[in-house]
Structures are given as structure tokens and as C-alpha cells.
């Protein structure tokens, strides 16, 4: 990887599109060099990385890595000697009855959405301890707070992310490392394109803000969390237009 030694460095998982892409844009605009990961869409991620480098004059490395595979994450960190910001954004969904879900499907959801936060954080923390500073931000969901019918595994994984965030924040607070999560409502991304226009319109009407959230708003909040006082840690910030 072509990493600049003294430049601030951020890693964003699941960054080829949607929320991850918007977070990468916000960080690049703030001057961060980037490591961006994806599982299946490397050409798209490489195109995004090249665009960010040209637009912001930063260094951006695109890497194929399955967030649910600890060995893939270890390969990325093997070449790193510093890291300032980690954004755990990689995530997948499953919509259907729990009784129709296979064991493999359950494990895939849990490993991708929850275990991935462990795989990255355990390797990022030693790098942050070197500077006695750092920021870990986990992208969660309102369903992690209240649960959703037909999305039991997804809700369970995001509830786990919330607890992971709170517990790790307490562990790292003495070391001046912040750990927070953003609990997203309905964000206008490809993950929600499985719903019909009629279903999305009904959902929109339930949201007091009367619209879906935009990926760029999540990116803005990530940047605000990084720039926030270090006393802000262990928080699950809900970004949902007043919905839940």
C-alpha cells in the first residue's frame, strides 16, 4: 500500500457505494489518506478511489477484503504502522422469516455486521495506542435499538454493534480513543431498493422529516464525531429524521 507516513489515515470498510462511499468522500475532503475496502465490487471501488485522489489530492488505496473473514483483515493491517480513524461500515441485510433462514445465512449476517467490528478493532487499537489517540466509528441501525420484524438477524447484529460500541468505549477511554456508533434510519441506498416505490412511499410518510436520509448526511456526522471533544465516547447517535 502507498501510505504517507505523516498524513492522517482512515480506513472505511464497505466503501464502494452508498454510505461507505459518502463517508470516504467526507474524510477525503478533510484531508485524510484512505484505505477503502469492499468484498465484491473492486472495479467500482478503484474508480471511486481514483476520483477521490484527483479531487482532493490525497492518497486512497482500494482493497478487496471480505469483512467477515479475519484473515483478509489481517492482511490489510500487516502493512500498516499507523491508523487514526476506523469506520466499520460493511454490512448486509436479510429480509424474511427467521424460520426460513438457514444457519449459514445467520452466520453470514452476524460475521459481516458484528464480528467484522472485532476483526478490525482488535488490530486498529494497538496502532492508535501508539499515539494515545484515535477514533472508531461503527455504522449501526435503528433496528439495533428497537428491532424489526422480518429482520431478526440484522437487528440482532446491529444491537450487538451498539453494545460492542459502548463496552469498547469504556475500555479505551483511559487511552483517549473514542468509540461511537451512528444508528441510521432509512438512508437512500441500494440496500433499500428491494422495496417497491409504494412501500418506500409508505415508509417515508412515517418519518417526521418527510424524506429519506442521504448517505452524505452520514458522512457529515462521521466527520463531526471525529472532530468532537474526546469526552464524547460510548454514544449511539441516532440519525433518522425523528422516526424512532
Automatic annotation (TrEMBL):
Is Lipid metabolism tagged as a keyword? yes
**PROSITE patterns annotated for this entry?**
ADH_SHORT
A single GO BP term for this record reads:
steroid metabolic process
Which keywords describe this protein according to UniProt? Lipid metabolism, Oxidoreductase, Steroid metabolism
Family matches, as CDD domains: SDR_c (cd05233)
Q: Which is one GO molecular function term here?
A: oxidoreductase activity
- List, alphabetically, the SUPFAM superfamilies matched: NAD(P)-binding Rossmann-fold domains (SSF51735)
Family that this chain belongs to? Belongs to the short-chain dehydrogenases/reductases (SDR) family.
Q: What is this protein called?
A: SDR family oxidoreductase
**From which source organism is this entry?**
Waltera intestinalis
Amino acid at each position: 500500500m502507498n501510505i504517507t507516513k505523516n498524513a492522517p489515515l482512515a480506513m472505511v470498510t464497505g466503501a464502494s457505494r452508498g454510505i461507505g462511499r459518502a463517508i470516504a468522500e467526507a474524510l477525503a475532503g478533510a484531508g485524510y489518506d484512505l484505505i477503502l475496502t469492499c468484498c465484491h465490487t473492486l472495479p467500482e471501488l478503484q474508480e471511486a478511489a481514483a476520483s477521490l485522489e484527483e479531487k482532493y489530492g490525497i492518497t486512497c488505496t482500494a482493497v478487496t477484503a471480505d469483512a467477515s473473514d479475519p484473515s483478509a483483515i489481517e492482511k490489510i493491517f500487516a502493512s500498516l504502522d499507523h491508523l487514526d480513524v476506523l469506520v466499520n461500515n460493511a454490512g448486509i441485510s436479510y429480509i424474511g422469516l427467521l424460520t426460513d433462514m438457514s444457519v449459514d445465512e445467520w452466520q453470514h449476517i452476524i460475521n459481516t455486521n458484528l464480528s467484522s467490528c472485532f476483526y478490525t478493532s482488535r488490530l486498529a487499537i494497538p496502532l492508535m495506542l501508539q499515539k494515545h489517540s484515535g477514533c472508531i466509528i461503527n455504522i449501526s441501525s435503528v433496528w439495533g435499538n428497537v428491532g424489526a420484524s422480518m429482520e431478526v438477524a440484522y437487528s440482532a447484529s446491529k444491537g450487538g454493534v451498539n453494545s460492542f460500541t459502548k463496552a469498547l468505549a469504556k475500555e479505551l477511554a483511559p487511552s483517549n480513543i473514542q468509540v461511537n456508533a451512528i444508528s441510521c434510519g432509512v438512508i437512500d441506498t441500494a440496500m433499500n431498493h428491494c422495496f417497491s416505490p409504494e412501500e418506500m412511499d409508505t415508509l417515508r410518510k412515517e418519518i417526521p422529516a418527510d424524506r429519506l436520509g442521504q448517505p452524505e448526511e452520514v458522512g457529515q456526522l462521521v466527520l463531526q464525531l471525529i472532530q468532537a471533544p474526546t469526552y464524547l465516547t460510548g454514544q449511539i447517535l441516532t440519525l433518522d429524521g425523528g422516526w424512532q
